Amino acid sequence: MRRCFRFSLRAGLIESRKGSVLVMVLWILVLMSFLTSQYVAHNREKANISRNAWSSFRQRQAIVSLTQLFSTSAWPVPDGTGANGRWFRLYPDDIGVWVRVDKESSRLDLNSGNEGEIKQKLSLMMDEKHQDEADAVSDAILDWRDPDDMARPHGAEAPAYAARGLNYRPADGPFNALSELLLVIGVTPNLFWGDPVRRIETDLTRRLMVTDTAVQKDTVPDALSEIFTIYSQTGRRVSLLVPGEDNTYLYTNVILANVSGGFNVVDRQQVFGVADPETYDRLTELESQVAKQESRDRASR
Prior knowledge:
Oligomer: single chain
Largest sheet: 5 strands, antiparallel
Number of helices: 9
Structural class: alpha+beta
Strand order of the largest sheet: 1-2-5-6-7
Radius of gyration: 30 Å
Order of helices and strands: HEEEHHHHHHHEEEEH
Distance between the termini: 117 Å
Helix content: 40-55%
Strand content: 15-25%
């Protein structure tokens, strides 16, 4: 009986040890699986970072290349494409960049424009449902620019900025950079930038619908950066939209001052954005249709 008990006890210990070893092996497998997944995730993250960094580098290089291209006094595109201030595409380093080159003289000088002109521009940009907002933004812009501390009916002087906890106050002087508008109470990034992708789409759509160039140019700007300037009226603006990964884009306005024999960069404004998933396909289709129509128009003249 005693031998049987000892045998049973020994067998139980052996089974217990086997169970412990099995549990330990399972834990090791779980740990190895976790470490493997972490390693894979880490490598995937590093790969994504590298890809995004490379994409960003190529975007910026494309911008530099095109800025240099349009810094000459002569129009650099052989067939004259884009010389009328319309959007078109160029392909530096095989990147399809949307480009528009136009004159600063087409915009109102934010520092010298009078109150009526500034209010009119804001009123036209915003639809009828947002006229109160248009009044507030225009008054706040004028209060930022004028030298006194008297707030307009819908405007904002130093107390309004302090009440919002902002650590700056109105300049009470001229704007030194166009992006300074983003500091004005009521000026949101959306108001300042608008939707550059939709801007291109609207331009292409109008060119399909209307063949008269004068009518094509008669469009209402959708952003403060499109309405105003603080730069010389003889300058040139190069607007560039560079598509990126996952429907992202880098949008840049390069302001060029007219100098003897060419243009020099005096300011650059940039913003990152995300387009609708199908937007770039629509732009490509519209671009193709516009090219065909303009080709037919030239042949019929």
